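Running low. Got one?
___
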Amino acid sequence: MVKGLDRKFTLWALAWPIFIEVFLQTLLGTVDTLMVSEISDDAVAVVGYSNQLFNALMTLFITVASGAGILIAQRIGAKKEEDARTIGIMSVSVSGAIGLVISAVLFFWPQTIAKLLNMPEDLMPLADTYISIAGAGMVLTAVMAALSTAIRNTGNTRGPMYVIIGVNIIHVIMNYGFIYGAFGFPVWELKGVAVSTLASRVIATVVLIMMFLPAFSRRITLPEFLRFDRKLFQEVLKIGWPLGVNMSCWVFTQLLIYMFIAMLGAAELAARTYMNTLESFCFMLGYSFALALQIQVAHLFGASRTREAYQATYRAMYIGLVVVTVNALVIFLVGGWLLGLFTEDKEIITIGVSLLGMNLLLQPGKMINMALGNALNAVGETRFTKYISIGSMWLIAAGASYVAGISLGWGLIGIYGCMIADEYLRGLLSFFRWRSRRWMTRSQAPASANASGGATAKA
C-alpha cells in the first residue's frame, strides 16, 4: 500500500475493474471461438488469422492512445488537469482519424489483404466476408481505445468495465441469433458474427463518449474535438511512438508467426487459435495488475514520488507472478478437456495438448515482462522498451521461430520455445534497467518546471 495516495489510484482500486473488463473481453473472444467453431474449424482459423491482422493495424492508433494515457496520469499527478483534459481530447480525435483510413482500406480491399498475408486459398471466401465487415469497424475500435485509455488514466477504471459488461451481453445474444437463427435473426453464420462485432462496437463507442465528456473537472464539449495543441501533441508522440513501435513489433511478429503456422497446415493454425484462447485466461489477471501498475507509477512519477513508484512495481510483479503461475497450472491440468469443448478433431486436440506444458514456462515470463515493461513506459522509458522489442522480438520470437519451426521441422514446439525465450530475455533486460534507477533523476524536471511556471504566473 502506497501511503498518502488518492484511493482511486491504489493498485487494487485500479486493478479489479481492469481485471473484470479484461476477463469479459477474453470471455467474449472465447464465446466467439466456441460459437464460430459450430460453423467450422476453417471459420475459426479465419477469425483467428483476421484478428491478428486487426491487432497489427491497431498499433497505428494505439501509439497516440497509449502515449496520451501515460501523460494524462502524469499530469493529474502533477496537478495539471487542464493539460490532461486537452491531451485526452486530442487522443480521441487523432485516433479516430487514423481508424477511419484503416476501415476504408479493409472494407474495399479485403481479398487483396488476405492474399498478402498468405491466407490459404480455401479460406479466402470466408476471409473476404469477415475482414470487410469486421474491418470496417476499426474506426470504432480506434475511438474506443482512445476513450477507454483516457478514462482509465483519470483513475476511473470502473467505467470501461461497465461498458464491456453490457457489450458482452449484447454481442453474445446477437452472435447466437445470427448463427442459429434465433430471436427472428437471419442465419448469417460467419457474416453474422462480423455484423454482431460491428454493432456492439457502435453501442460501446456511444456509451464511452457519454462517459468521457464529464471525465475531467471541466466538462468537454463536442466542438473541442477539433482542438489541437501542437506542443502537448509532441509530448504525446515523444512517449507514444516508441510504444507504437513496441506494440507493432509484437503484433507484426505474432502475425508473422501465424503465417509460419499457416505453412504447417490448417490443423496447426486452428490449434494455435484455440490455445491462444486458453492462454489468455492464464495471464489476464497478471495483465490487469500490470496495466493498473502503469497508471499508478505514472501518477506517482508525475508527483515526483519515485521511491514509492520503484517499490510498488516489485510488489505488483510478485502478485502477478503468483496469479499467472496458478492459472497456468490449472490450464495445464484441465486443458485437454477444455480443448475438447472447442473441437472434436483429434489432431487439433493432440497438437494443443502438446503445448500445455510449455505454457507453464511462457506465462511467468510474460508477467515479468509486462510488469517491468509497463513500469518503464510509465516513467517515460519507452525508447528502452522499444529497442529491446526490436531486437528480441524480430530476432528470437520471429526469426528463430522460422528456423526452429519451419527449417528444422520442430513445428509448433519449436515456435513456442522461441516465444518463451523472447519473453524472458526482455523481462531480464527490463529488470536490470528498472533496478538501475536512472529514470528517477528525470522526475524532478517536470516538478521544477511546474514550480517555476507557477511563480511566473503569480508574478
In short: Residues 8-442 form one domain. Residues 444-459 have pLDDT under 50 and may be disordered.
